[in-house]
Amino acid sequence: MALLMAPAALAKPIEVKVVVLTTFEVGADTGDAPGEFQAWAERWPLKTSLKVPGIARPVRLSEDGVLGVVTGMRGRARESVAALVLSPQFDLSHAYWVVAGIAGVDPRQGAVGSAAWARYVVDADPPFELDDRELPPGWDVGIYGPGAARPGVKGSAPGSSDMVWRLDPGLVNWAYGLTRDIALPTEPAQAIRSRFATEPAAQAPPKVFLGDALGTVRFWHGERRTAWARDWVRVWTDGAGVFAMSDCEDQGVLDVLSLHGREGRIDPARILVLRTASNYTREGDGETQAVEFTEGGARAGFEAAWRTGSPVVRALVAGWPRYRDQSPGARP
């Protein structure tokens, strides 16, 4: 049984080596149907539970300095990460951060069960929006950027969001290099992949790849919204990013960590975002628009996050005497 410790019982901040952020767990942390967190809690294992004010569920700590957190979904992730960074219970000044959660994948980029390390995280939360039934002539979508006059034009969002975060290329490439050949589960998601005959990447076996994340607290789905997401990522990254994964939390997580990074509380060059595909961002070829979540897709995503993320976390812990002060992605 995990030991639950109150904040007052901790006399000295605990130095954390790696923070693993997941967004939800179905029930208990261990012993029942899995969500994003259960594999980390059971297999690492994360044995000690601690209550952090401002985070709904207890966080869990391993003996070797890995801290696992269920942030909650959508806007709650932002609040939880802020509470964690501000907590006097932990020393996070040298910590690495690994976001490990499921997402929707663009069928043009990958298959259900795949895992993508993000090079860019792009915020889609502060857009201007018109009803798609009332669009001006020449518009194909009613969502456009603040500070812009129409879709497809880059604007700005001062006081609202940085909009784009480029993760440290050296660290991202190091993580990808460690995991690019990992075998990911192929069943039972094969039946889901077969519905996308026009997309070779969607039919291929799951893989680990480099692919960028679009975050927005509102859930969206469909062919036209997928086209919008591709364009949104392209515009805001000046053509450098390629939309791969859609989720509801990364923009909030990166916003909070970046703000605190400017104050020296955490190191924003030590952030990794790993999203794994539980579903596609659009309906299957020729199908009526419908949002579908299958148990097989979700379970494939949970397992892919563990199989891909855990080797990176283990390497960081094993190399801590060096990696505490120098990132594995840093040039010699």
Explain what this protein looks like in three dimensions.
Helix content is 28%, strand content 21%. It contains 9 helices and 17 strands. It has helices at 38-43, 75-86, 169-179, 190-193, 200-203, 223-236, 250-262, 295-318, 320-323, and strands at residues 3-5, 14-15, 18-22, 48-50, 59-61, 66-70, 90-91, 96-105, 115-117, 120-123, 128-129, 143-144, 164-166, 208-210, 212-215, 243-247, 271-280. Helix 2 (75-86) runs parallel beside helix 7 (250-262). The longest helix is centred in the C-terminal third of the chain and has 24 residues, at 295-318. The radius of gyration is 20 Å and the shape is globular.
